[in-house]
Amino acid sequence: MVTTYKSLNSSAATKGKKLSAETATLSYKMDYEPSFLRTLFSLILVSSLLDCVLSEVDAFPDTKTWFENLLPSTMCIQNASIESVYGIMFDAGSTGTRIHIYSFTQKYPDQLPELRKEIFESVKPGLSAYADIPEQGAETIRGLLEVAKDAVPSSHWKKTPVVLKATAGLRLLPEKKAQALLSEVKNVLEESPFLVPDNSVSIMNGTYEGILAWITVNFLTGQLYSQSKQTVGILDLGGASTQITFLPQSEETLEQSPLDFITSFKMFHTTYKLYTHSYLGLGLKAARLATLGAVETGAVDKQIFRSSCLPKNLEAVWEFGGVSYRYGGIENGESGFKSCYAEVLRIVAGKLHQVDEIKGSTFYAFSYYYDRAADTNLIDYGKGGILEVRDFERKAIEVCDHMEGFTSSSPFLCMDLSYITALLKEGFGFKINTPLQLTKKVNNVETSWSLGATFLMLQSLRISN
Ligand SMILES: Nc1nc2c(ncn2[C@@H]2O[C@H](COP(=O)(O)OP(=O)(O)O)[C@@H](O)[C@H]2O)c(=O)[nH]1
Ligand SMILES: [Ca+2]
């Protein structure tokens, strides 16, 4: 049994910092403490339930009932005198592609496997940057598969499933281009020695992102099996889309929310009705494009997109989704927080559904919320921390009103912080003193949908040794 936490290459914090700094690749290996194996056991249990019902999401996009009576027939990872089970999950995000290689051990034949180790590596840019050269996009997957070949013993290759789920970057592409990319990727997976299930390469429904991450976080924090059922909401800010997911306490929320914002499921004899929504185009980088006014026009030769959120004398080129945009500040014009905030406000104003009760709730926030808070020392990169919405605002004012002395690695820092402030305050309608728990990992497990998705994959395939 793994008894100590250790980071094999270097500290996760240092590696994570690289991710924030948007470097090309990073990798780390880590073992997990046994203290939360019970939690992971439970998570696997939930995933076994999830597996059989996720397909219902598309069929009944309004209110769904999940998990009902599923437990006995789905507890299928058993009867094994097992050493290791592996699962490979690709997260094809809008800003990068990541491979998560999880290994599990099964100690006793009648027990579900326990997560033992995760190996992670990523490349930038994301698949959508290869929209016109899909073969090259697929080559990035081939490269990452080499990591999997090193990580998984060759004796296990054939029974180790590999799945790729794409998120907002591909959702935003024209259907034909997205399909061409997915088809090239599928070819590459099929050429690999791993097990390639049906539907192994797909664009994930935005609802799944929120729900899988919500279940992951609430299991890892012990909320779902505690008596109090004090669950926490989650906020994910990706490059191209953003998700909000929480368990409403008030009937009013359930009654007044649009039908497709509410998803219900039964788990451990409790029915949960979650509020979840994914806003496509409101991720951090998509919001930059919108603020620059480049969404409608696209990148036109020689055109420079200007914003008061950028240093006045700046002129540079920014690439997103495989397109290059020239951008800069407004020389002899406005700059600073006040004018910048007015710009970013236009991106969120009237675009989001607001719920009164979130004002008093606790939310876990990760991805770009975490990265930008860490970049500006609002939180420690390794540890995370609790912030209030007004901390983002305070930092936005500080950065935006001192852009002349700008030395930051990202010229977009003022715009990003202002956007995060506007999204939280005016978009979702949080109060300035709403606490946010900035978290990258809970018990050393990434706060992302990919672990949950891996459990689903294993369970749906009845993978065991
Ligand atoms: N906690 C966590 N964050 C991640 C992981 N992979 C990517 N991110 C964060 O996700 C953000 C980028 O979002 P991305 O997935 O590319 O865009 P999306 O397609 O709109 O979701 C950045 O803040 C990354 O740091 C991960 O494994 N764990
Ligand atoms: Ca993401």
Automatic annotation (TrEMBL):
Keyword Glycosyltransferase part of the UniProt annotation: no
Keyword terms of this UniProt record: ATP-binding, Calcium, Disulfide bond, Endoplasmic reticulum, Glycoprotein, Hydrolase, Magnesium, Nucleotide-binding, Secreted, Signal
Origin superkingdom: Eukaryota
Binding site for ATP: 239-243
Subcellular location: Endoplasmic reticulum; Secreted
A GO CC annotation given for this chain: extracellular region
Keyword hit for Metal-binding: no
EC number, as in UniProt: 3.6.1.6
Catalytic activity line of the entry: ADP + H2O = AMP + phosphate + H(+); a ribonucleoside 5'-diphosphate + H2O = a ribonucleoside 5'-phosphate + phosphate + H(+); IDP + H2O = IMP + phosphate + H(+); CDP + H2O = CMP + phosphate + H(+)
Single Gene Ontology MF annotation: nucleoside diphosphate phosphatase activity
PROSITE patterns per record: GDA1_CD39_NTPASE (PS01238)
Active site annotation, chain numbering: 209
Enzyme class, first EC level, given as a word: hydrolase
Pfam family, one: GDA1_CD39
Cofactor: Ca(2+); Mg(2+)
Gene3D superfamilies, per the entry: 3.30.420.40, Exopolyphosphatase. Domain 2 (3.30.420.150)
Pathways involved: Protein modification; protein glycosylation
UniProt cross-references to InterPro entries, sorted A to Z: GDA1_CD39_NTPase
Function noted in UniProt: Hydrolyzes nucleoside diphosphates with a preference for GDP, IDP and UDP compared to ADP and CDP. In the lumen of the endoplasmic reticulum, hydrolyzes UDP that acts as an end-product feedback inhibitor of the UDP-Glc:glycoprotein glucosyltransferases. UMP can be transported back by an UDP-sugar antiporter to the cytosol where it is consumed to regenerate UDP-glucose. Therefore, it positively regulates protein reglucosylation by clearing UDP from the ER lumen and by promoting the regeneration of UDP-glucose.
Subunit description: Monomer; active form. Homodimer; disulfide-linked. Homodimers are enzymatically inactive.
Family statement: Belongs to the GDA1/CD39 NTPase family.
Classification via PANTHER family: ADENOSINE/GUANOSINE DIPHOSPHATASE, NUCLEOSIDE DIPHOSPHATE PHOSPHATASE ENTPD5
Protein name: nucleoside diphosphate phosphatase
Species whose genome carries this gene: Microcaecilia unicolor
